[in-house]
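Supplementary notes for students who missed Thursday's class. We covered one full example, reproduced here. Read the sequence, then the structure, then the short commentary at the end.
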Amino acid sequence: MAILPLYPVSILLELNSLGFSHDMLPKFKSLIKKPNGIILVTGPTGSGKSTTLYTTLNILNSTEKKIMTIEDPVEYKLKGINQIQAKPKIGLTFAAGLRSFLRQDPDIMLVGEIRDKETAEIAVQAALTGHLVLSTLHTND
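Structure (token representation):
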């Protein structure tokens, strides 16, 4: 059993402290400033995928940007960001959440993990239609 620290006051990390290589850090900083596209953070469990995405959201968060997330679970509550918990038992899947987000025209969307073809297709479509999409893929080293 794992115990997650849900809803801490804030996550105050900087991208510089997350282990990006000297070459990759400026590239990543440039990518997250783009108005659209898809950024996938990949790695095994415990490799820092969620920490990287939450740090990125903290950097991007401003009153000028509409940011929405669907997560399972919501690990950190971020002020000014609309976060929802996926609940597949009632039909609120990652794909359903993304579809709903598109009707609300956010600037940035985060989907906790791309686990299936439908979610991947909607995420790519969102990126192609002017949204910045952030997500993770679980991969082995």
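Commentary. The first helix runs from residue 24 to 32. The beta strands are 37-43, 67-71, 82-85, 108-111, 132-138. If anything here is unclear, bring it to office hours.
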